[in-house]
Amino acid sequence: MKRTDSFAVILGLLAAFFFGVSTPLSKMLLQDLNPFLLAGLLYLGAGLGLSVYTLLRGGRITPPLKTLKYKYIVGMIIFGGLLGPVLLLAAVRIAPAASVSIWLNMELVATAILGHFLFKDHLDKRGWLSVGLSLAAGVLLSYSGGVAGFTAGLLVALACFSWGFDNHFTALIDDLSPVQSTIIKGLAAGTTNTLIGLALAGGMPDLPALGKALLVGFHCYGLSITFYISAAQKLGAVRSQLIFSLAPLFGVLLSVLALHEGLSAVQLVSGAMLLASVWLMLAEKHAHAHEHHEMEHTHQHAHADLHHDHHDGPQQEPHAHLHRHAAATHVHPHWPDLHHRHSH
Q1: Is the pLDDT at 326 greater than 70, yes or no?
Q2: Which domain holds residue 40?
Q3: pLDDT for 275-320, tens place per residue?
Q4: What is the pLDDT of residues 114-170, one digit of tens each?
Q5: How many CA atoms lie within 13 A of 106 on its CB side?
């Protein structure tokens, strides 16, 4: 694995950690906030926090409008910022946070299915076996929860397919930095959900609950989404989602420690199945002759691969700027990043 790919894996693990701890924290916040309002505040916390960070560093919150890929951005906001979090929080209200945390594994399944049929994100037999193990872990947990378990499981499944679309849209946006993508999603989705939540609540929430939600939003959503996008642009949506699927393990741990929820044998077995699915996917080797068309785009990159040799002399540190790729045909191991979305 190249150094740049290893760094992307680390970013994926960080994304998993920060999002994993958001499920039990959200369950505690739902005691004072309705699902729409909490979803809005979490995304507002992400958007506002990263906006302040960007401005303090002298950066731009958004690039020139003429460069934006609107269809991907609108899809990212609707599926990832509106539908997904509301469906998830509705499930958290009626099911143990630890089980919901592991059900979120189904996002990997949704991302893989959508990737195969719609987004040219290829999986081999080993990859599909990994996806199957992840799905089996979610079904096992749903069955153990009775009728309420199936209802919550259905809500989580719908949330996961919403985030599956979001994952692919986000991985294909190459004219926004990961921070800029998170800011746009956070502010747009956060404002919409917050207004709906305030209307349903009939007034403003208590300031302590408001502040806690914004802080959780910045740390758990803002950092998680930013790290995830960075990983997805290098590894592809499905592989990044595989790493991100470790998030439930962090959520289960915090549910046990902070909410004093019991840890059942079913949850332990499901966790073991999840770890096995992660190992299977990361062991995949994929190489064949493929063609690159000429293209021009902006994204973060280093010069330690075959596709970024546009500078004279070494450029070791990752950086972002507009650059052009010439047409090429070659063979090398690859994952479906921004440069490798091709048919198989």
Answers
A1: no
A2: 3-287
A3: 888 788 777 665 556 565 666 656 565 555 555 565 555 555 556 6
A4: 988 888 777 778 888 888 887 787 677 666 555 557 788 889 899 999 999 998 898
A5: 25
Q: What is the rounded radius of gyration, in angstroms, for the C-alpha atoms of the chain?
A: 20
Domain count, the chain: 1
Asked if 115 contacts 237 with a C-beta cutoff of 8 angstroms, the reply is yes
121 is a domain residue: yes
* Residue whose C-alpha is closest to residue 85's, from 27, 49, 44, 36: 36
Instruction: Judge whether 271 lies within some domain.
Output: yes
CB-based contacts of 148: which residues, under 8 Å, 6+ apart?
94, 95
Spatial contact of 291 and 342, defined as CB atoms under 8 Å apart: yes
- Report the helix count and the strand count for the chain, using DSSP H and E: 15, 4
Cα–Cα distances (Å) from 268 to 181, 257, 263, 289, in that order, read: 35, 15, 7, 42
Residue 140 lies in a domain: yes
Instruction: Look at residue 322 and tell me if it is in a domain.
Output: no
Distance, in Å, from the CA atom of 69 to the CA atom of 74, rounded to the nearest integer, reads 9
